[in-house]
Amino acid sequence: MLMNGEAQFPEALTAKPSALIGFLGLSLEQHIIWNTFSEVSSRLRFVNMENLEFPALKPKRTTYDWYIPKGILKRNWVSKHLNGIPSVVVLFVQLDWKHPNWSEKILEVASKVKSVRGTLSGRGTKLAVVLIQKEAPLPSAASDEDSERASSLCSACELSSRSLFALPISTDSLRGYAVKLENAFYELSQNYYHSEIRGVKSHRDYLNKTTHLYLFVRHQFKIGFLYELKQEPMSAHKHYGHAYSLLMEVRATDTNIMEVKTVAGFINYKVCRLAFALNLNRDAIAQFRKHADVFRHKVGCDRLAFEHSAWQSQQCHVFAQLFEKTISSSSGNNAASQAQHPGVYYQQAASHAISRRQQSEEAIQEEPNNFENVNMNLLENADHLEYYGQRPWRPGKATLEPPDVERENSGIRALIYWEKMNVNDSQIIITLLKKSISIFEMFKSPRMTAHLTVEVAEELRKEHQYRESLELLKPVIKTYRQEKWSFLLNSVLSLSLKCSFLICAIPEYASLCLELGSLEIQHVSQEEKNRITGNLIKLLERQCPSAEPGLTSKSERAAVTEAFPLWTSNLEYNQNTETPLIDLQSISSSSFNIKVTFENQEPVTVNSPGKCRLRLVNTGTNFPVPVQGVEISINDWSIDRKFNELVFVGPCSYLDEMFELKLQQSDIDLGKFSIVSVVVTIGSKFFIKLKKSFVDEVVTDHFLIPPSSSSNADAILNIMNEPDVTKVVVRQRTPLLQMKVLEKNPILVGEWFKIKLDFFNEEDSKIEDFECKTILLDSQDPLIGDTTSVSYDPSSQLEIKSPTDENVEAYAVTKHIGELESSKSLSFNVFLKASTTGIRNVRIRIKYKIGDEFYYTLKQNLSLNAIEPFVISTEFLSVRQRNISRIYTDEPFLCIPEVRSLCSGSIRILDCRIEPRFPVEKYSEGEDDSSLKNSILFQKGLARDCFCLLVKRDNLSNHLDIQDITIGKYIMEWRRDDENDINANVTSVFELSPAKLSLGSLFIQAFHSPYGVKKSPFNLTYKLSNLTDKVQEYSLNIESSEYFLISGNKQVHFKIIPHQSRTVNYVLHPVKAGPKVPLPKLNLKSLRLAQGLDVNETLERLLPEYMIVLENTHKDGFVKGQIRDECFKKSSSIFIESKISDKSSKSRSFKS
């Protein structure tokens, strides 16, 4: 029954069952114990019992032979076991093991236990005793005395030792003790519910299905619920399923159908809930579908059909709530899909609620005398019946036919009257539909969402919430327009028109009239379109439009009556009232249309102004439309034309207007005429503005007019099918100022690249406001903007920085020239500097005017490529001019920078220098001159410079055997060879290649004459220097040679102390002459292997291998001197070696 809550599920059934544990004996001071147990337990529900009051104990039945059940499920049974009867009663007593009056305390506790046990007599509730102790907890091995006291207490109380517990509260581990006790209480409760289930099952042998089928259903339900309390959901699900199957065997009649459906709904809820909890989602859905199919046609009394629909609605609603809760949890993510989700069941619930309203309205209409003498006393105590689902006027009557037909009819009338007076169907439907919409939106079903939104709007209209209904329909109308759902669109437009009429929403009403009155709208009769258009014309004449058809219900007729005064007051003249504006782009079609096009076939210039043609088309067939004025917005200005008299555009006709557009400077700058929007004001006494906006260059309206007998039909068709041409090119007169740009691409990184601009004025008169803008087009890119500078004077350093705006011209460098007389010329330069390679796009923009005419512009774009001017590579040589892979400490070496030109022209190298980086230093501090100074490097030319450098061991921060060091920077000052301006000088800095550095242990030098003469002896001296901090010991020998006779110690054994030197002298007597005579080979062996790993490499790197030996038979002194000079050049390595030994020599000597 609806009113007494059977359609609404009882709270006891929807709550999650938990075993009930009763606490007895806790005082207010011991609240910490209660709080701790409440926090630690998730399986049990604790209740603090001040006294032991339980429901009356039902007498045990020994036979069911003559017992006839009065109903299926008792109303109070679930609540009694859920909240009234605890499975375990826990008695708390404050008693320590060492209490001095232990014997007296035992008697006191035994008395309390006996009292509690007497109250629980006849029930299976378990009893436990907890001793609250203030002292520290007992050790793991309790004393014999404590064990005896515990045994004596159990004996005195007739209590099992497993039901006696101690709880120390003076320690920090109270929570741990509470968890242990909670587990013990849970085990006791399991035993209680197990015995209760066995007790219910024991009745089965005394029952038969012929007379006790209700009891079979009741007992299976009880077992299922007790299993839920026992926390065994699988067993509970099984027994609830058995209960449902047994209920299906009950014979359903008009007398008991409501009771059967009510109990079936409760059992189905339990089955579905447990199935979802057990992750049996498919089983839950299948069970509900089966449940809905079984009771689909079990209506019962025809007069109470609305009651059946209400029950169906509630079943769908409750299942949808279960389903939604499941998918919101992590375990139910795979339970729903786009075709199977809670929104479907919310929608079904709403559909049943709509059927409920229709059936209740029919039942109310069939009642005679408008419910006179209805007896509402028959519905008293409906919420306090003994069994669920029974009628309050015949409780406990399990008969096939009503015992009193007249009383039955009076009860049915009372139900119908209660339904009429107390149920707000629309509010129920709206709530269900909104829930369904939220789920469908979650599963991305826009069409279903739109459909349900329309249903909500319908219900809001029935609830007289017309403004809310209209706002809900606006996005739906937009969706149906986009998807071309013509039939649905017309239906929603009609509903919106009714709502806008009832609330006097003038802009919405006028917009809907224009759209519904359009010839493009289908599924609307011509008579209906004429009526709608006629209402619009009434509105324009400041008359109240006629009411919309279909508003026939009593409440709607009252709303129409209230709407007419509202229309009258809103249409009264008021100067402060803002004219309603309707955007024609926001509606799919209109009965009044705007077509615009440019008549210019060629670009618009100063001498040929633009012509814009505007046609206002009335596609209606019955009423002329009055037009007051037109406003056309073009670029950043507008044309406003007001007609002296109202112009009427007749039915199926059009108004043709031509506008001449005067050229503005902004139009020339923009380069086009662009119609932004057209606003037409229509109306004679009440005015409405129609706006059509244009975004694209060409706007095409696909409009087809149905066949018409009017002679203008073909012309209207042609006009409507024409595209809107809203843009036309605007061009300036060809400027006569001649501009020539001269540049030498590419740009060299680091230089101020010169762009020369030459101008010649061929205009008939002088030009004024002459200015030049240089724009870096890619300046928004930090890789370009931050590395590029533009200036007209490099010395002033006017530069473009990286902009943050998309308007690049706002960041241009501008030069104001002023005036230039006719037939005169002018030249100036623009400089651009790039610090990185890459393309630089530059725009040169010239602007000037002549007298009061428009400005003229000249533009030229340049694409300039910035490249590196040079490529630098580095080579390292020993003092013997041999390539070396590494350098050594305290040993001079030659750094050879190799410069390769990448420029297409010649480059003059003004100067070069090296800046060594510590610990590298110059071998001679006075060496600053470069061999490339004042030299010219041609295209793809190659030049080599030379510097003598040294790394001292004392300057190193770490003394690793091998490490990488950076040599330093090579600095070049240069300019293009054809530039003489000082601003053209560029300084480029290059990093020299790094080198590997090793710690040197030995440095050896050879001293001898630059050349020898055959049979003329000369001295050869070897100087060996120890570069380490340790004593070096060597064995030296010199090999015999067929080219020289050697005088001296050929084998020497010696030691060299740290940072000291040792010399070895020989006299060589040449026996053969030649330009490349091998010197005797010197062998050196370190007698300390750990320190002599690089000896042979050092000899090969530092000692000469050959020398020049001249014949001594030349008599011509001039020829002999020339040969000697040539020999001197070829023996430069020996000369270098001798110069290195002299610290005061100049670095130029190393470059000979």
TrEMBL record:
GO terms for cellular component: cytoplasm. Pfam families: Foie-gras_1. Residues 256-516 form the Trafficking protein particle complex subunit domain. Coiled coil: none annotated. It comes from the Eukaryota. InterPro entries: TPC11. This is Trafficking protein particle complex subunit 11 domain-containing protein. The lineage of its organism: Eukaryota, Metazoa, Ecdysozoa, Arthropoda, Crustacea.
